Structure of Methyltransferase:
Amino acid sequence: MDLGSGLDDHRTRILTGASPAEAPRQYGGAPETKGGPMSQRKSAAEVFDDLGERYEEVFGRVPGQLAALDWLTGRLPAGARVLDVGSGTGRPTAETLVRAGCAVTGIDVSAAMVELARARVPQARFEQADVRTYTPEPAGFDAVCSFFPLLVMDQPEVAEALDRMASWLAPGGYFVMATVPGDIRGLDIEWMGHEVTVSSLSTADHLARLADLGLEVLHHHTAHFQPADDRAVPEEHLFCYARRSAGS
């Protein structure tokens, strides 16, 4: 996952595991101009409707995500209100949080994912909703989880989504997120057999934005992950653990 033209070899290898010369062959080439083939690609909802439970088979055991959930559940009291953004099939995030005694709400743009999540984790509440337009209850959440839901949108929308999720935290609330980092905008790639357009922010930009939003970044790290799919290349994942101060 990285931009074709205009990016250096280091950035391309981080996101795709390939050199710039290889990236077009593996991931569909340089970004298309607005109004070209990129605009005709499937939406995130359509892609994840098609993937269904296959997504859980490939990405359901990401070590960094499981570690982040262990970290979070060790700090939340029973009954803590937690929002899972991009909840997918409900596993592992919502399921882990429910077992820890949390009151979990999950949102996902995919109707198929919401249906699977409701069947897998009936103790949680799931809604078909987009983080860009979702309106939560005014009380806020004790924690918000965001594991990889922001990639299939435009770069300004990624930044706005971070702003929105931070605003939903109650004082003292935790924000735990993961993404594929990089200064990427409008990159057309092939992923899990689907042509999608992805964007992201660099690690430095993620950290700076969270700080600007009034969150203290307690920990962050990057890790390499090999998806359980023969077509997939290793991915670099950024994990951030942050908290809103109790007085804000």
Summary: The first strand starts at residue 81 and ends at 85. Residues 98 and 104 are 7 Å apart (CA to CA).
